[in-house]
Design brief:
Length: about 325
């Protein structure tokens, strides 16, 4: 974030979740005088992620709460909207669309009168199950599940609201395959890097879909937080937060076993999900040019830092 921006009061929805808590604690570190408020209903979050937090928590479902009643005439310098149902295998269409879309709509309705800058979490899931091409922000969305569909609608709403209201900053940061500290509470919805690390640490063979050569843009959470913070000063639009490189699940297993000193044989099994993305890879041209985003962590560097943090041994 540019040093010229002074944040005195910040709202983070979904701040007890994986990415949200990392964002909150980074904000707290960089802006020690700021008052930070987290709004979270703790369905996808955990209080343990915020044990070092010095701000306030509103235990609310942002898709159903009365924002004006909750915050009154409170004026925030920025709103970071991370709240979402993050389990992509939750197939209740009404629940996914209502909670993800209406939570964002209410955040914008609250922010509109004061034109409070809003940075929100978009997702690379909107690209669907197309071929192996590098993903660019302007390619047509092809959501393969309702989670991805809900994120596509967020992008649509943000684009229209920014068009209607001049001088209002609404920026989407499109997350690729994020991993890192404070994701353990997600259980089966945690990253495959976390899942595979737990299998290997338990002495079990790592299990991935045949033949382990599906590729993902695995991006470390510290890089994602940086991209999100940079969004506060960017022109309106959607920007990628990825590593810029597609790596296979076999690469992940190799990186984990290098850290753990193991040589377990991989077990491959059939993929039961028809909506599974075979390849994600972020084109970072726009993010570099307009955000000033430059990811610092390769897959190997991210895995090494993850182990060093102590969170991968929980």
């Amino acid at each position: 974030m540019k040093k010229s921006v002074e944040l005195k009061k910040v709202l983070v929805t979904g701040g007890a979740g994986f990415i949200g808590s990392n964002l909150v604690l980074t904000l707290q570190e960089r802006h020690p005088q700021a008052w930070i408020v987290v709004a979270d209903d703790f369905r996808s979050g955990n209080f343990k992620n915020l044990v070092d937090f010095r701000g306030d928590v509103a235990g609310m479902d942002v898709s159903r709460m009365d924002w004006r009643a909750q915050f009154g005439l409170e004026r925030f310098d920025a709103i970071f909207h991370e709240a979402s149902i993050t389990d992509t295998t939750e197939h209740d269409q009404r629940l996914q669309v209502h909670d993800n879309v209406e939570g964002f709509r209410r955040a914008l309705e609250f922010a509109r009168p004061t034109k409070t800058p809003v940075v929100y979490a978009s997702s690379a899931a909107t690209y669907g199950i197309g071929g192996a091409a590098v993903n660019v922000e302007d390619q047509p969305p092809k959501p393969a599940n309702v989670y991805a569909f809900s994120k596509m609608i967020l992008d649509n709403i943000a684009r229209e609201q920014a068009r209607r209201v001049s001088a209002w900053r609404i920026v989407g940061v499109r997350y690729f395959n994020v991993y890192g500290p404070r994701e353990a509470h997600k259980g089966a919805a945690a990253s495959m890097i976390y899942q595979l690390a737990q299998q290997i640490r338990a002495g079990k063979r790592p299990r991935v879909f045949k033949s382990g050569e599906q590729k993902r843009d695995f991006v470390y959470v510290k890089d994602v937080v940086e991209a999100t913070l940079l969004g506060l000063n960017a022109p309106n639009g959607v920007y990628h937060a990825g590593s810029g490189h597609a790596r296979s699940f076999n690469d992940v297993i190799a990186a984990l076993q290098a850290q753990l000193g193991t040589r377990l044989e991989t077990e491959y099994f059939n993929n039961p999900y028809p909506f599974y993305q075979p390849h994600t890879e972020a084109d970072l041209s726009r993010s570099r040019a307009r955000l000033g985003y430059a990811p610092k962590f390769s897959l190997e560097d991210g895995v090494r830092d993850y182990f060093k943090s102590g969170f991968l041994t929980l």
